[in-house]
């Protein structure tokens, strides 16, 4: 906030100066900052899946705090995840289609297909591989074929219709995007950036502080998954989750501001990867 305040003071002083020839910093890219991102269908799909994941996490925390999950019923959590994922697919479809249409996208059906497979596709491939290994080694944790069929039916009969209905609602209720300033026809050249302001170093920087804030709870969670401990302190975990959200939001906004101050107007995808 101190840096932002100093920049406002500097720019206000520059406007009052008659010898100011050219704008610098984030003020110089006001005509490019609202230019639509590349691969906007994938961008909208990622936004929709992220909104759905956040909603699933909140519902899981609510069920955990009220005592639905207890230590010796490990299947309750997985069942809740499958059911809540199916019921919240409409949120992903609505968010993705609404944002995609605001970005003047036309193939909203393809965007819905991408939204439905962006999260579910990698999970399905990983699950099939792990379950095949479990069956090959005759582990008791392997899911039987009947359970897999039930999960597929839930996805086909519940999740997919909700996704389509949410997408239709998002497409029909979209509001036209109104940028506060006019976007130039030709994009401004991005100046060379130092190594620490490039994507990979900033991704590492954006993930370090949030990870350090939840490291202890992650240790106990993994110990519970591996069967060494029983995890029951869901209230503390929820508090840590709130702290994680705050830290992630602050770091994402700060790094995005520094990127704009360096006259790099390609902030859309950076904003997503910083937060994830």
UniProtKB/TrEMBL annotation:
Keywords linked to the UniProt accession: Endosome, Golgi apparatus, Membrane, Signal, Transmembrane, Transmembrane helix
Q: Which InterPro entries match?
A: EMP70
**Species lineage, top-down?**
Eukaryota, Viridiplantae, Streptophyta, Embryophyta, Tracheophyta
Question: Where is coiled-coil annotated?
Answer: none
Asked if the keyword Zinc-finger belongs to this entry, the reply reads no
Q: Which family does it belong to?
A: Belongs to the nonaspanin (TM9SF) (TC 9.A.2) family.
Q: Which PANTHER family match?
A: TRANSMEMBRANE 9 SUPERFAMILY MEMBER 4, TRANSMEMBRANE 9 SUPERFAMILY PROTEIN
Give the location in the cell: Endosome membrane; Golgi apparatus membrane
TM ranges: 42-70, 76-100, 112-137, 143-165, 203-222, 234-258
Question: What Pfam families does the record point to?
Answer: EMP70
Q: How does it sit in the membrane?
A: Multi-pass membrane protein
Q: What is the official name of this protein in its record? A: Transmembrane 9 superfamily member
Query: What are the recorded Gene Ontology BP terms?
Result: protein localization to membrane
User: What do the Gene Ontology cellular component annotations say?
Assistant: endosome membrane; Golgi membrane
